[in-house]
Amino acid sequence: MTAAAESTVVFEGRFARELAELAVPWQAEEAPDPELLVLNDALANELGLAPDYLRTPEGVRVLLGNHIPPGATPVAQAYAGHQFGGYSPLLGDGRALLLGEIVAEGGRLRDVHLKGSGRTPFARAGDGRAVIGPMLREYLVSEAMHALGIPTTRALAVVATGRPVRRDAMLPGAVLARVASSHLRVGSFQYARATENMDLLRRLADHAISRHHPAAARSEHPYLALFEAVVAAQAELVAKWMLVGFVHGVMNTDNMTISGETIDYGPCAFMDAFDPAAVYSSIDVGGRYAYANQPVVAEWNLARLAEAMLPLFNEDQEQAVGPAVEALGTFRGRYSDAWFGGMKAKLGVAASPEHDEASDLVDGVIGLLKDGPVDYTQFFRSLGQAARGNSGPARGMVLDLRAFDAWAERWAALKPDAELMDSVNPAYIPRNHLVEEALAAATAGDLDPFHRLLEVVRSPCQERQGLERYTEGPPEDFGKYRTFCGT
After folding, report:
1. What is the pLDDT of residue 2?
2. 98 vs 38, 42, 90, 214, 299, CA distance in Å?
3. Is the pLDDT of residue 386 over 70?
């Protein structure tokens, strides 16, 4: 049975073969006493992996990178990146390994990638390890994002290693196995450009087109079309973040994917009270990656991608700049359209033909949120009740009641669609205090709070009796929330 099950675990080595200059063959650190903490059965099935096999001792070792199926070539990926605005010419997977690609449902290639699997040649001063709390955070938040319809990497499993890891204190170690359309990043292109190897840069772009944006191959200018496709994908992605109040926290260029998926859930959080200046990362002291700055940073990151790709647009750099600037210039319009369309849906007026009227309503609701500490998720969910005639809960959240009443009268005149609102405004998000509660319990050996919270956020818009505490904001003594990257 084990042999038959193992035969379904086939890791392609396409990245390692096609882009060998970006791939360092490497082996994961051996885990002394592995224990499977959580397995994503549904995702395993999508990948054609047998959950029962992954729960066996051998299957767990596959999830750790300690048992390598025949033909697999685990590699640490090389990339560069701007971190908080400062350029690092060589970053790479310091504590991660790409096991390879799997052909999933529909013939799609999906990366299987480890985090916390030990030091690699890119580790610098790090120990290459991870601990249970941050790995479970990525599992939890990425599954919540997937349930909200936001493109994201997903977690396949978290495995405890049985090895204590020193952070501020000694904590139980763990490895995350995650899945993505690929792990190509803006930083991958920055690294290839920095090598001045134009053949590598071209092969990297061809690889990205093949995996993510195949329509670009049919364009008269395929590499410019690739860049345009990445601009469009990132504009849509960041708009979706903003619509649910998600703060990524570490939008370095090595954390922006070519596929348009969210990656790296380190110092991330969902806003409780609406705050354009919301920052949750312990190291973002200047607020570079604050909630309201995310679209600006995304555009900045894309400008760095354009710089890296310039030789592909035209051999004459002066002639390459114009088309690159023009393509980058579409970001703001694409983002605004995606965000505005999403806000109209959140207000239940998506079908409103009057742009100016809808724009006035959107501006008005943002003004209400800015005026005082209003719980972002609760407010929009409560507007669904207001659309059914019960405006009390939403009205009770704002400070300026006269302003709310005037706004609500204009809004109600457009006959908002309450069912649409309930389908896009989540009742449940990974509330920060609940996340911390679940992670603290899991670190101490109790996974029940984690599993309960995971089950709730996997159906974010389906309100259920008995789950009221999962809709509530933080207790008064919760304090200012800070998250850490886990290294």
Report:
1. 46
2. 20, 21, 17, 23, 28
3. yes
62-76 per-residue burial string, b: 16 or more CB within 10 A, e: under 16: bbbbbbbeeebbbbb
Mean pLDDT of 160-173: 94
Amino acid occupying residue 253: T
Separation of alpha carbons 263 and 278, rounded Å: 20
Q: What is the pLDDT of residue 4?
A: 46
Average pLDDT over residues 232-257: 98
CB atoms within 10 A of CB 280: 22
CA 285 to chain centre: 22
Return the amino acid letter for 422: D
* Structure-token match 């002291």, residue found: 285
Note whether 132 and 35 are within 8 A (CB): no
Region of 96 please: left (phi>0), alpha (psi -120 to 50) or beta. Answer: beta
- At residue 37, the 3 state secondary structure works out as strand
As given in the structure block, the two tokens for residue 197 are 């190897």
Q: Is the pLDDT of residue 1 over 80?
A: no
d(CA 241, CA 262): 9
Closest CA to 259 of 101, 452, 83: 101
pLDDT tens track for 283-334: 999 999 999 999 999 999 999 999 999 999 999 989 999 999 999 999 999 9
Q: Give the whole-number percent of the chain exceeding pLDDT 70.
A: 98
CA distance 297 to 461: 29
Compute, in degrees rounded to 10, the torsion defined by CA atoms 121, 126, 129, 132: -150
Spot the catalytic one: 206, 254, 275, 284.
254
Q: Is 155 helix (H, G, I), strand (E, B) or coil?
A: strand
Does 405 qualify as catalytic in the annotation? no
AA letter at 170: M
Per the CB < 8 A criterion, the answer to whether 257 and 185 are in contact is: yes
Range in 106-110, 244-248, 256-260, 304-308 with the lowest mean pLDDT: 106-110
Q: Which helix (H) or strand (E) holds 81?
A: strand 81-83
